[in-house]
């Protein structure tokens, strides 16, 4: 069964450092997303991406965040200067089309120290 | 504002007992509705979804959910829980605006022998 894969599974970084979280969506999917889940809280939408551009973003997704699809397979989330409050589980998701099932990756746990 | 409410933060049931997890949404029209399950350290797995048609939907692992428009609810049920069902359950809605899911805060399920 096709799946969304995320690397690394756990990333520890120092405050102020840049991090890049990587995702490989399902190959024939067209829409890509990042969500985050702060420990003990609900899953929150960050950004959606379609046709090589951001289609929607939440207020959480400020100038410190960026997304990129550098090639035909990877979808990355970059945090330029991490803060302690960026510590969370970050989930990548992809869908084949609008209003269809979203497939989520296993998540990357980001710990900012 | 649109919202998803899961009133029960934590539920404990005995193995073999029936289960109902509540979900209410606040939105003017009928959104697309989903239930996801998250096992410890894992990503989000889709249990079932409702787009239209029959209001009682069947999902994986013996789960079902019923959409009730009059109550703005989409409760998840299982007639007989198994110890392996212990996990976090998230209700989510898609407001048909591009697959931005709004997640509930989750219900943690504990299954006792």
Question: Main traits of this protein?
Answer:
heterodimer, A: 113 residues, mainly beta, 4-stranded antiparallel sheet, globular, B: 113 residues, 6-stranded mixed sheet, 52% strand
Question: Which structural class best describes the helix and strand composition of chain A?
Answer: mainly beta
Using the CA coordinates, give the radius of gyration of chain B.
13 Å
Q: What proportion strand of chain B?
A: over 45%
* Tally of helical runs of chain B: 0
User: Can you tell me the residue ranges of chain A where pLDDT is under 50 for at least 5 consecutive residues?
Assistant: none
User: How would you spell out the order of helices and strands of chain B?
Assistant: EEEEEEEEEEEE
Element pattern of chain A in H and E: EEEEEEEEEEE
Give the fraction of residues assigned to helices of chain A: under 10%
Q: What structural class do the secondary elements of chain B suggest? A: mainly beta
Distance between the termini of chain A: 36 Å
Spatial extent as radius of gyration of chain A = 13 Å
Poorly predicted regions of chain B: none
Concise structural overview:
Chain A has 113 residues and is mainly beta.
Task: Please describe the topology of this protein.
The complex is a heterodimer of chains A (113) and B (113).
Chain A (H helix, E strand, L loop, with lengths): L4 E3 L2 E4 L5 E6 L6 E7 L5 E8 L2 E5 L7 E4 L6 E5 L8 E8 L7 E2 L3 E5 L1
Parallel strand pairs in A: 2-11
Antiparallel strand pairs in A: 1-3, 3-8, 4-5, 4-9, 5-6, 7-8, 9-10, 9-11
Chain B lengths: L2 E3 L4 E5 L4 E3 L2 E3 L5 E7 L5 E7 L5 E3 L5 E5 L4 E6 L8 E8 L6 E3 L3 E6 L1
Parallel strand pairs in B: 2-12
Antiparallel strand pairs in B: 1-4, 3-9, 5-6, 5-10, 7-8, 8-9, 10-11, 10-12
